[in-house]
């Protein structure tokens, strides 16, 4: 009897494993920012420069060849030995092709390769020089021309992963000192490093920061990513979003949202998957389409299903959705008049750094920022008897009031914001 039960369990386990192995991930959709509806069927590519101080690739839409389109700068990660003998960017090739066929010129600076590298500040200045070289080549050579706005400024965005994600924010934040045009949009994927404050970015800049749930570096970089997001306080919620892509192992091959989900190895089958179609590809093209054409905004901003959906497994089960990490992904208080915390006051205002917050239902978290957008204080308040003692210099400060996440893990929605004066 025991033997019969044992073999029955083995058969059931084998059958269950076989069923799961037959469930496959979502395919690339026919339409949408991550989809197959390419307005250009091919692309042209070319490499310029001789060393890491001046090398870059250009990818341009073709068939048909447009007169002008916006420009996207794509920054690679740190010392990735993923380029062949001709310095072809193998691991990001599919993404670069997707961008070009969707109607964008891509500038791909080669600021590191093999065992050659530069100090980080050199990477910024060299990359800025490379971008200007590429823009000059595009303007003067036989290329698709960079699209410009009514003031003659080139329409330009930036993206990258890991070190490249940080580079995209750094370049955009320091565009004036680096002699570059202002960046209209930035997409940072699993960025890590020593972040500056990005409060100097124009408030019109559209920005997304995207984390990966199973990022192998999350212990080292999670705080840095949070600091980067917090420093974007001056950019309104309508222009930014903070998201996390999750793993899902329901079928085969599994979808693993790790530090490298942004890239794909052309030598490994199935390395381009739903994390690209519904993640990096979707978010990037939606961000740039929203910025330059006013389309696809619902795929990158807000909390709708276009943002959160990762498609369905072949058996119809939805892939684990994108996690919304900040209030900018949820309904604003102006759209939610019944919110219990919609009438919140700082008293006294002005004050000497010691004050109370009224109109609350507890607990809440108070975040306070200085005029540069730097977070200077964070405090959880559990009762009406608690006050805040801010040890900062005189000036104008901004605050956000955040309620707990509905899941009970961490903090969720910003229900109030405002400013006060410290005398």
Q: What this model shows, in words?
A:
With 423 residues, this protein is α/β, with parallel strands linked by helices. Helix content is 23%, strand content 23%. β17 (395-404) and β18 form a beta hairpin. The protein is globular and about 65 Å long. The N and C termini lie far apart (83 Å). Residues 331-343 have low confidence and may be disordered.
Q: Calculate the terminal CA-CA distance, rounded to whole Å.
A: 83 Å
Structural class: alpha/beta
Largest sheet: 9 strands, mixed
Number of E strands: 18
Order of helices and strands: HEEEEHEHEEHEEHEHHEEEEEEEE
Helix tally equals 7
| Uncertain segments | 331-343
Q: Give the overall average pLDDT.
A: 83
Strand content: 15-25%
Order the strands across the largest sheet as they lie in space. Answer: 1-2-5-4-7-8-9-10-11
The whole-angstrom Rg is 24 Å
Form type:
globular
The residue fraction in helices comes out at: 10-25%
């Amino acid at each position: 009897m025991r033997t019969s039960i044992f073999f029955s369990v083995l058969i059931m386990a084998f059958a269950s494993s076989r069923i799961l192995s037959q469930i496959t991930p979502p395919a690339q959709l026919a339409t949408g920012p991550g989809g197959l509806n390419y307005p250009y069927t091919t692309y042209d590519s070319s490499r310029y420069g001789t060393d890491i101080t001046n090398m870059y690739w250009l990818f341009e839409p073709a068939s048909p060849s447009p007169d002008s389109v916006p420009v996207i700068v794509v920054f690679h990660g740190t010392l990735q030995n993923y380029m062949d003998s001709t310095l072809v960017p193998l691991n990001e090739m599919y993404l670069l092709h997707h961008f070009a066929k969707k109607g964008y010129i891509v500038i791909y600076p080669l600021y590191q390769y093999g065992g050659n590298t530069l100090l980080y500040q050199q990477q910024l200045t060299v990359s800025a020089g490379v971008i200007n070289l590429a823009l000059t080549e595009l303007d003067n050579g036989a290329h698709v021309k960079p699209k410009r706005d009514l003031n003659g400024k080139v329409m330009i965005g930036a993206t990258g992963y890991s070190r490249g994600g940080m580079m995209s924010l750094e370049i955009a934040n320091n565009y004036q000192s680096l002699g570059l045009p202002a960046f209209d949009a930035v997409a940072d994927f699993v960025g890590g490093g020593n972040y500056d404050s990005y409060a100097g970015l124009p408030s019109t800049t559209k920005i997304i920061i995207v984390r990966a749930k199973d990022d192998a570096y999350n212990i080292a970089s999670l705080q840095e990513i949070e600091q980067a997001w917090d420093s974007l306080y001056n950019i309104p919620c309508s222009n930014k979003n903070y998201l996390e892509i999750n793993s899902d192992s329901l079928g085969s091959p599994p979808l693993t949202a790790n530090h490298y989900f942004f890239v794909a190895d052309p030598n490994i089958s199935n390395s381009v998957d739903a994390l690209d179609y519904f993640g990096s590809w979707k978010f990037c093209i939606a961000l740039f389409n929203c910025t330059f054409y006013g389309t696809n905004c619902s795929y990158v901003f807000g909390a709708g299903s276009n943002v959160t959906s990762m498609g369905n497994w072949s058996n119809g089960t939805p892939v684990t959705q994108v996690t919304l990490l900040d209030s900018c992904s949820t309904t604003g208080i102006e759209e939610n008049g019944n919110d219990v915390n919609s009438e919140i006051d700082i008293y006294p205002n002005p004050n000497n750094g010691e004050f109370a917050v009224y109109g609350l239902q507890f607990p809440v978290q108070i975040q306070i920022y200085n005029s540069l957008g730097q977070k200077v204080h964070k405090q959880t308040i559990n009762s009406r008897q608690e006050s805040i003692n801010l040890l900062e210099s005189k000036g104008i400060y901004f605050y956000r009031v955040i309620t707990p996440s509905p899941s009970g893990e961490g903090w969720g929605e910003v229900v109030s914001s405002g400013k006060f004066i410290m005398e």
